Sequence to fold (317 residues):
Amino acid sequence: MRQILLIVCLFLLLPISLAYAQAVPIEVQVIQASREPSSAVDPAIGQLVRELQRDFAYTNYRLLETHRGEVSPQSPWRTVIAGGRDLSVALMKMDKGRVELHITTPRVNTRVSLQRGGRPILLGGPPHGSGVLIMVISAR
Amino acid sequence: MIRHRGYRHSLNAYVDGELGPSETRRLEEHLAGCGECRVQLERLQGLQGLLRQGLKDPAVDLTPALWPGVRARIESGRPPGRVTAWIRQIWEATWERPRLSLAGAAVISVLLLSSVYLLWETPVAPPPRKTVVLEPRRAQVVVEAVEPEPDYGAMVLTTSDEDEGLHVIWVVAQGDK
Fold:
């Protein structure tokens, strides 16, 4: 009897484990870039800021928020970032360490292909306070 | 002298038995009194005897002189090799079948002409080079599509970087461009 129950439990857990295996962790860092005097840079975005400083004229980069979630083929991930803006990420495709994501923000929808654990995609431009927002979205 | 010439002409017919009775009697009367013609008659009769004996059994005179040479050649000769025997068989077979010989000659001619044509028309190809297929390196970030909302514009920027630049989708209001 116990063996039968164990087998039934395993069968019930199987779809959950499969769904978990297909889940892709997503991380979103929300940065405010401004022309205010430079201040200490958060170590979490130190490397990124150095790269941005090469091509952008902003002098100050400040990490406002970090959001983490998971997306799977059946369930997109939604969150609210600075300024009450909705951000939605949906998993469109997953193949050989790459994921294709559909990202929806208040002003732009985009579809990007990312290497898992690789470089992020940056969405920037929305005004926020004295500067603009930059959303750094990566797949783990 | 003239008489001897006439009788000598008759001697050949006499030896062959072709003279008539009267001519035979007259020649024999002459031979009885002419030693020179008798000598000539004896020569002709001896030569005729040799010819008759040779025609009856030519091997008796000819074979002893030829056989030693033939035997020496046979004894010194080697049996033909397999290739030689094979070629000889083909040669004999084709020689005995003229149609087969003609067909073979036609086939060989067609092959030769085809080879000449191909060598003449086909350009000499360069030696094959070793080809290395490089799989294109796909960027870590690929922007598949960008759809800005109305009244907004978007641009995709790639920052310079030694390894791979940052991909930035920058959204601006239409009036801010």
Notes: The radius of gyration of chain A is 19 Å. Helices of chain A lie at 2-22, 46-55. Residues 2-22 of chain A form the longest helix (21 residues). The interface with chain B takes residues 48, 51-52, 54-55, 98, 100, 105-115, 118-126, 134 of chain A (CB under 8 Å).
